[in-house]
């Protein structure tokens, strides 16, 4: 007979004693279990003891996480979190350097556990650590473990980053600015600076006064990839939190220090040679930071992309005159040369050859945003830096019939818009994306060079397709596919990108499309697509019901309090559920009396995820926090009240965010919903097609073969 579900069989260790095998009743209070264990070893004052998981984590067992204990777990009897915190608080103030070092090592290890961290913070432990750092008396391993303990404690989000003094910030910054510094100290210092910048606008200004990008660059020239990763993370944080007027700048002129630093050759070339082309393989965290830097750099183009051209601005009109001059090798005629009508006619003719939509006043073409003035910037760069190719394209098309010419002006505007969409200019970086492209780090003006290669590709594809003006959109679609396929191969340089595009001619694209169509299931015909579209709402409703049923079953979450004050226990284990209350609920049914917080669905205003969650705003810079960010969500109710949660895994996160969005009448957008939709649609389509072929599908699955009564047999392989 199987043991009761509430009974867990475990082994419990105590230093110097033989381990005990015990059956733990999960219905009993944890204090009673600890008392029973202590009595077995004749230990008094059981309230001074606690149980830990006997593994590398050494996490304390509490009423909140006791359900994680499984059969066969090995536990350890140890001093309680409070007693351990008191002892370590005293030990780290020891006058003996050796004793102090051992204490700091133990503190750094223990601080990973939130139960201990809360007790140590309640003893004003964070202030003690900051005082030790500010005093400047500790060096080497002492300082390293002090900072490690500090980072681990702050990582729990219990204490606000805004509480730290300028003296502490200056001291941490000094460790980063020193040319020769212990690797562990440097790594922790960089992590602290990143967290300060990301979690407080006020601290951003203080950190920015102490640290410049130029002082961070030497750390990229080493061989330690962790140090390089943290360094780029700090650069990204400074860039991301820079005031709006400093971030949205014109890259072409680089008026601000930040844009100037990012645009200059030194940082780019150092990252290229010491990080991207380093013999050490790039890990996921470094790839993410390079992706973030790439996105933030391209976002400098947003201002130009969203700036309309002013047809009355002479300086802007002069750029169009420059394009005409380079293409047709003409100088601006003086005002008294010929009649006004003759000059207008000549300008109109040339603007038509340049491929503008508005032949009379091309400035009007650049009033569309996006791409705004960015398209004109790209055209001018192409004309000046690739003059031969520019002149060839313009003259080649101006000599064709009107309907067969590839309009350079219109093509440049649409192509710039397309490239901005591909690179997601203006969008914030994704939390879990690693999609950086090495080729964009090989040139100071990588976007402009990207455009120059792409505009020549467009002209080549136009000729291969023998396109007319009516085919403009088709050509743009093919060019987009060519660029996307080439980028997927992650070329290491712009020349390699250009070479890949040469192999992706229009003929090759047609072959690839044909091959993909042949390899796909025969679900692409119009009747099949129409049927898919018709049954999609039905499948979506089925997924929605599954999500809502899952909400009704409930899930245990780590819930973070929305009102955080030092000294309070802010993390509790709660069970959320959704229930339609009957007029007279039975005693066994869940009610609000035995389920803590109860929020009526009608009061829920929104579901917030990731960095926007209140309990994520003060999270640290370590990698585990980036993983936690992907599992965090908050329920906003009433005006400013939140229920904050961290899902146990990605599946539960998607189920709950989808389910809550469904309750609010919003779209379910998680990857799991898309995956479920594809799977269920595919199954339903196959069943319906089998039904059309009059193939009978049984209502019940076939019976499972009976278990043999006699196992005493041998199979003769011969």
From TrEMBL:
The keyword Transferase does not apply. It comes from the Eukaryota. GO terms for molecular function: SH3 domain binding. InterPro entries: ARM-like (IPR011989), ARM-type_fold (IPR016024), ELMO_ARM (IPR024574), ELMO_dom (IPR006816), ELMO_domain-containing (IPR050868), PH-like_dom_sf (IPR011993), PH_domain (IPR001849). GO terms for cellular component: guanyl-nucleotide exchange factor complex; plasma membrane. It holds the Pfam family ELMO_ARM. Residues 315-487 form the ELMO domain. Keywords: Apoptosis, Phagocytosis, SH3-binding. Gene3D superfamilies: 6.10.250.810, Leucine-rich Repeat Variant, Pleckstrin-homology domain (PH domain)/Phosphotyrosine-binding domain (PTB), SH3 Domains. The keyword Lipoprotein does not apply. Involved in cytoskeletal rearrangements required for phagocytosis of apoptotic cells and cell motility. Acts in association with DOCK1 and CRK. Was initially proposed to be required in complex with DOCK1 to activate Rac Rho small GTPases. May enhance the guanine nucleotide exchange factor (GEF) activity of DOCK1. This is Engulfment and cell motility 1. It comes from Lates calcarifer (Barramundi). The gene is ELMO1.
């Amino acid at each position: 007979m199987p043991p009761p579900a509430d009974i867990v069989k475990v082994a419990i260790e105590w230093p110097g004693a033989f381990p005990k095998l015990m059956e733990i009743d999960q219905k009993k209070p944890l204090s009673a279990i600890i008392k029973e264990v202590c009595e077995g070893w004749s230990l008094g004052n059981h309230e001074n003891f606690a149980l830990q998981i006997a593994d590398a984590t050494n996490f304390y067992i509490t009423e909140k996480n006791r359900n994680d204990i499984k059969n066969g777990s090995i536990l350890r009897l140890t001093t309680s979190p409070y007693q351990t915190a008191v002892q370590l608080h005293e030990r780290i103030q020891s006058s003996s350097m050796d004793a102090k070092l051992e204490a700091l090592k133990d503190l750094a290890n223990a601080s990973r556990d939130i139960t201990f961290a809360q007790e140590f913070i309640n003893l004003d432990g964070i202030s003690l650590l900051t005082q030790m750092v500010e005093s400047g008396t500790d060096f080497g391993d002492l300082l390293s473990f002090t900072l490690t303990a500090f980072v681990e404690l702050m990582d729990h989000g219990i204490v606000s980053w805004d509480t730290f003094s300028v003296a502490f910030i200056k001291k941490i910054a000094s460790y980063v600015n020193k040319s020769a510094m212990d690797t562990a100290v440097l790594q922790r210092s960089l992590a602290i600076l990143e967290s300060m910048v990301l979690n407080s606008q006020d601290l951003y200004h203080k950190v920015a006064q102490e640290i410049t990008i130029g002082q961070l660059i030497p750390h990229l020239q080493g061989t330690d990839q962790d140090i390089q990763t943290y360094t780029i993370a700090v650069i990204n944080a400074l860039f991301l939190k820079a005031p709006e007027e400093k971030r949205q700048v014109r890259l072409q002129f680089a008026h601000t220090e930040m844009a100037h630093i990012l645009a200059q050759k030194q940082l780019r070339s150092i990252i290229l040679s010491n990080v991207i082309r380093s013999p050490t393989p790039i890990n996921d965290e470094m790839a993410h930071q390079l992706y973030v830097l790439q996105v933030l750099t391209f976002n400098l183009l947003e201002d130009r992309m969203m700036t309309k051209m002013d047809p009355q601005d002479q300086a802007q009109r002069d750029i169009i005159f420059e394009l005409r001059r380079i293409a047709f090798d003409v100088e601006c005629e003086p005002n008294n040369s010929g009649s006004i009508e003759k000059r207008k006619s000549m300008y109109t003719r040339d603007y038509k050859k340049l491929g503008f939509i508005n032949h009379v006043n091309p400035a009007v073409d650049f009033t569309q945003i996006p791409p705004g003035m960015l398209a004109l910037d790209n055209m001018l760069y192409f004309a000046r830096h690739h003059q031969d190719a520019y002149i060839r394209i313009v003259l080649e098309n101006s000599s064709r019939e009107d309907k067969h010419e590839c309009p350079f002006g219109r093509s440049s505007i649409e192509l710039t818009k397309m490239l901005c969409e591909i690179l997601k200019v203006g969008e914030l970086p994704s939390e879990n994306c690693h999609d950086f492209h090495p080729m964009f780090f090989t040139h100071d003006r990588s976007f402009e060079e990207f455009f120059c290669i792409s505009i020549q590709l467009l002209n080549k594809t136009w000729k291969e397709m023998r396109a007319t003006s009516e085919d403009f959109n088709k050509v743009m679609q093919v060019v987009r596919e060519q660029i996307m396929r080439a980028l997927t191969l992650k070329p290491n340089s712009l020349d390699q990108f250009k070479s890949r595009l040469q192999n992706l001619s229009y003929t090759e694209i047609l072959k690839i499309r044909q091959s993909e169509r042949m390899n796909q299931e025969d679900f692409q015909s119009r009747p099949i697509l129409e049927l898919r579209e018709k049954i999609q709402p039905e499948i979506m409703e089925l997924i929605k019901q599954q999500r809502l049923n899952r909400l009704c079953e409930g899930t245990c979450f780590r819930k973070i309090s929305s009102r955080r004050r030092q000294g309070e226990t802010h993390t509790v284990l709660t069970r959320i559920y959704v229930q339609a209350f009957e007029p007279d609920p039975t005693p066994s049914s869940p009610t609000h009396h035995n389920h803590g917080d109860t929020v009526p669905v009608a009061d829920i205003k929104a579901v917030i995820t990731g960095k926007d969650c209140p309990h994520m705003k003060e999270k640290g810079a370590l990698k585990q926090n980036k993983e936690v960010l992907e599992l965090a969500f908050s329920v906003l109710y009433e005006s400013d009240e939140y229920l904050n949660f961290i899902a146990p895994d990605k599946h539960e996160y998607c189920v709950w965010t989808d389910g809550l969005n469904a309750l609010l009448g919003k779209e379910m957008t998680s990857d799991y919903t898309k995956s479920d939709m594809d799977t269920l649609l595919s199954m339903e389509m196959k069943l319906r097609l089998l039904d059309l072929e009059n193939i009978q599908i049984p209502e019940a699955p076939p019976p499972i073969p009976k278990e043999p009564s006699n196992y005493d047999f041998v199979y003769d392989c011969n």
